[in-house]
Amino acid sequence: MSAEQFVEYSEDGTRNHNPNRMISRDKAFEILDDAWELGVRSIIFTGGGEPTVHPDHLEIFAYALSLGFDCSLNTNGLLQRKGWEQVLSCFKYVRFSIDAGCAEDYARVRRVPASQYAKVLQHLKAAVEACALRGCVVGAGYVITPDNYEALVEGVEHIRNTGAAYVRLASMQSTEGLSPFEQPLPDIPSCTILQDVRQRIVAAKQLETPMFQVVDLFDTAMGQVPADAFCGMQQFVLYLGGNLKLYRCCYTAYTELGEIGAERDRHKKWVSRGGGVRAGAVCTSLCDLCLLGCLCHNLFSVASQVQTLPGRAHEGGPFSPPFPSLLR
Questions:
Q1: Facing residues of 198 across strands?
Q2: What's the predicted TM-score (pTM) here?
Q3: What does each C-alpha distance from 319 to 88, 245, 313, 316 come to in angstroms?
Q4: Residues 183, 201: Cα–Cα separation, whole Å
Q5: What ranges do the domains of the chain cover?
Q6: Nearest to 68 by CA among 94, 96, 92
């Protein structure tokens, strides 16, 4: 993979190879300031890497909250630094990526020691307890693959036992669509992995309670024709990579097809204050491979009702952090 993909540009145009795709604290603050000025009001801290391995992630999160952003986090949940409870409890949602139903599967999928499965479940439970009083929704994600589906029901039960509000079931993304799931079972040739997965999802749904939801998105996946040519995700959601380049969406991030600009270009070239990314930056050629493709029509309907968002409630934003020490 070309190192050019991980280049960070300084103000004078010099390049700094950034293989860890890690944005500096000061640059993150600058980006958040620019995003607020543009009218952005919601930030999701997510992958392309694990957000919580950034040494200053809590300070960055706290700064985003202090500006007034609605913040959310997608995380593997393995790292909880001192003070995380005060920050994450002020988020709108926190979702842990579990993707396994037992320690053995977790170790194989994540390529980590099996002991970390119990650790991430403990961290999920701690997050549920810390966030309960402030209304932050804490849940888990389980991406189903042919290699991790057999312990699905057990995994959903483990997640439910942490007190999480939900588990989100989805199929893995592949240019082969669902064909990896269409292989016959070794001991039952007349039954495919896909059929077995669906049966296990039905069993997992039986674990729902008034306080715990099993969200089945397994078949809301690749290979489907988009409901609408309009891509609401690309119109209203930008993906800023750790290499400081801008992409159409998370599914095309770090690819030439997905790249639409760079952070150093600011908003002058790739976004308009009138609403969303300029039309020329939108591409739907990959939407048949997109897990969110079926949401485009709904987003279009919602977008038609969106009105201008209010400005900052007061200087410093509507959120007053109880942890000023994090904002050095």
A1: none
A2: 0.76
A3: 13, 29, 9, 8
A4: 18
A5: 76-222, 232-303
A6: 92
